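Protocol step 4 of 6: structure prediction from sequence.
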Amino acid sequence: MSYKYSNILSYLCIRMDRKLLNIELGRVSAEQYRALPPSGMVLVLDNIRSAHNVGSAFRTADAFKADKVLLCGICATPPSAEIHKSGLGAELSVPWEYRQDTLSAVRDLKAEGYTLVSVEQTVNSVKLDKFTPEPGRRYALVFGNEVEGVRQDVVDESDFALEIPQWGTKHSLNVSVSVGVVLWHIVSKK
């Protein structure tokens, strides 16, 4: 055993609060991920202009076991260096589909039995901290463009809108942050 390797092992054995090594995390492979039971969550990205935001959404979708990501309109699609860089390859594990029109995509999801939820600030939006997902219900979560948000016709088609409560001076979060906040909330309440 080399001196360097011996020192690393000694350090790891002494530290009680050490970070876990990647091999200790017990993560599944992309094939195993696709074989897991469905979560009942689909992400719909409505005209997200940044491929980095799309990649981050893939990475978050992977972390919280979304069933699929629908990329709509101007969203970049894999293969893409920018998506791969921020998604760390999650576009290879999370199933995805491209649709030109967000409205037709969400109408199809509604016809398949999904509850359509726009993550948007609306007159009647439900504050995220007041929302508890219903067991067994499938949700299609729509996240909108970085500047314009979710298209109004898509909001109109939605069963309801979810709003992330905020107290600062800015009126919104980055879309990739919003994806993480909403998915964490839903998974933690199931």
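Step 5 (inspection) to follow. The longest strand covers residues 41-46.
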